[in-house]
Amino acid sequence: MAKETEAAAGAWGLSLLGWLVPGAGHVGQGYVWRGVLVGATVWFLYVLGVMLGGHFYSLFDRSEGLLSNVFGFCNLGSGLIYLASMWLGVGVEDQARLETAEYGNIFLMVAGLINYLLALDAFDLKVGRKH
Q1: pLDDT digits over 6-50, tens only?
Q2: Where along the chain do its domains lie?
Q3: Cβ count within 10 A of residue 35
Q4: Who is most buried in 31, 59, 101, 112, counting CB within 10 A?
């Protein structure tokens, strides 16, 4: 029973690490190439989204409507990328005048959603559900 509790605690820790830093949950378990590849994918989507003029939505801003809070939750999935971008002011300005801005918004949201899945994958790897 204690072994299962330790494994679950380690799995939660690696999952949290994987959410904060894309790919780190896999690297922390020895899946280096997988971690680098999936982390680079999230970073690529982030960079492409910002270059296309996308912006991050806030979790608490109600001025754009309730749906923007859902978009903010998607963006939060990027972990430290989202938090650092909000703190540094990168990708926070709505650039609706650009024709590609909506595509950029979607790329940023997908980066966060993929990172949520990667954190869950790191959890599953640690508890032995996957190999």
Answers
A1: 777 889 999 999 999 999 999 999 999 999 999 999 999 999 999
A2: 2-127
A3: 22
A4: 112
Backbone phi and psi for residue 41, each to the nearest 5 degrees, phi listed first: -65, -45
User: Which residue, among 17, 16, 27, 74, has the nearest Cα to 49 in the 3D structure?
Assistant: 74
> For 75-100, what is the mean pLDDT?
93
For 100, the 3-state DSSP assignment is coil
Per 3-state DSSP, the chain is made up of helix, strand and coil in percentages (nearest 5) of: 70, 0, 30
Q: Output the DSSP codes for 24-68.
A: HHHHTTT-HHHHHHHHHHHHHHHHHHHHTT--PPPSS--TT-HHH
Would you give the DSSP letter of residue 94? -
In Å, what is the CA distance from 118 to each residue of 22, 60, 64, 111, 122? 8, 25, 29, 10, 6
Tell me 91's DSSP state.
Answer: T
Query: 45-85: per-residue pLDDT in tens?
Result: 999 999 999 999 988 877 778 888 999 999 999 999 999 99
